[in-house]
Amino acid sequence: MLCHLELHHDHLDDLVKKLFEEILSCCDNPEIRVQISRAEGALRPLVERFESAQICADCNLADGRVKRELWDEIAPHFTFTPSEIADFITVSDNRVHEVDFERARAIWEKEKEGLADRVDFARRMAARIAKGRHHREVAPGQKMQGQPQARDILFRLCQEELPDIHSLHLGAAIETRSVARDGVGGNQRPSKRKNVKPPTDAEYSMLDAEQSANSKHWRNAGDTWKCQCCGRTKRDICRRSNRGKWTARIHRFEGFDIEVDAEQLWRRRLDGAGDIVISEPKYELICQDCREIVAKQRQRRADLDARALTLENLRELATPATANVAHDVNFESVEELITNNSSLLEAIAEFEDHQRRATDARIKQIRLRKAGCTASEARDLIGYEIAKARDWELEEGDDHADWLLAEAARLGPN
Question: What's the predicted TM-score (pTM) here?
Fold first, then answer.
C-alpha cells in the first residue's frame, strides 16, 4: 500500500536560487553577500506563482506526468499550481489520478506568457542586485513586528507552557514527518534475480558514449574504474529500469579523513573538538546503487542525518553485490549504523565550525589588505584579536592566526 505526502514547490524558486548562486560566487565581500542574500529572500515571493504546499503523491505525480508528456512544449521552469493540477485530474479513491493532457496543455498555453514575464523579471532584478542597486540598511535592535496572526498567538501560548519550544524545531519536524516515505526500501525480501542478463556490447557502447558526454564523474573514472563500495565495474553497474532502458551512473561520495597530526589535534581541541577530529573531506566515486542507499534513507527518515554513513558502512550494506541489479538493503541496519555513528556527526559539526573560523580569518585578512594593510600587518591585527579574546600572549595569538590562515588555504576551493 502506497500512501504519502510530498512537498510541491514552484521550480521558478530553483531558477532564482541558481541566479543568486552565480552572483554570490563572484563576491568575496561579506557585507555585500549579506545584502545579496536578503534581496534574494525578498525576490522569491515576487517570482513564484505559488507557495510550497504539501500535496498527495498522486497529485505531484500528475504534474510530472504532464511535463513528461509535453516536454517539448512546456518550459523547464514551469510548475503547475495545486489548483491547476486539481483542474486537469479526475480523482477516484485508492487509484492513481486520471490526467486530462489537453486540459493541462490549455492551462500551460494560458500561463506561458506570464511565466516568461516572471523569468525576465527575475533575471533583470538579479542583474540589478548584482550591481548593488538595491542596498538596504538593516535597522539595529529588535525588528518591528507586524499585526499578529492567529498562529503567532497560539505559538506564544505554547511558549508559556513550554519555554524550550524553540529548541524542538517543531515546524521542521512536522514537515519532515509529513513527507517522509516510510515505504521506501521497506520490502526486506530479496529481489527476483533470475535471468539477469548484462548489456550487449552495442548496448554498453551506447550507454558509455551517453554517460561520457553528460557525466564528468563517468569520464574521470576511466575504463578500469571499480566502485569503491561494492567493487563492481562500469559494465557491472549497468541495469535496466522498469521501462527497459539501461542506466548506469557514477556519483561522488563525501567521506572524511581523520586527523592524526599531534599539533593539529592540539589546536583543534582548543575549540572543543571531541575524540574524533576530521582533517578534511575525502571524495570517492561510487555507483548509483551504493549512492541510492543514502538517497532512500533520506527519503525514509530525514530526521536521521545520512552523512553519518561512512564508505565502510556502505560497503558492508552493499555486500554481497550482484552484477546488473540493485542492492538488497536492510534499512533497519542502515538506521542502526547512523545511530551508532552519532560521534561522527558531532565531529562533522565541529569540522564545519572550524572551516567557518578559518574562512572568517581569511575574509578579515582580505578586508584589511583592501584597507591598506600589508600582509604582515593584517596577520598581526588578526593575531592580536585572537590573543585578546583568549587571554594569550601576543606571540601565541600570531601563531594561531598563521595556523588559521593556513587552514583556510588548505580547506578552501582548489
Answer: 0.57
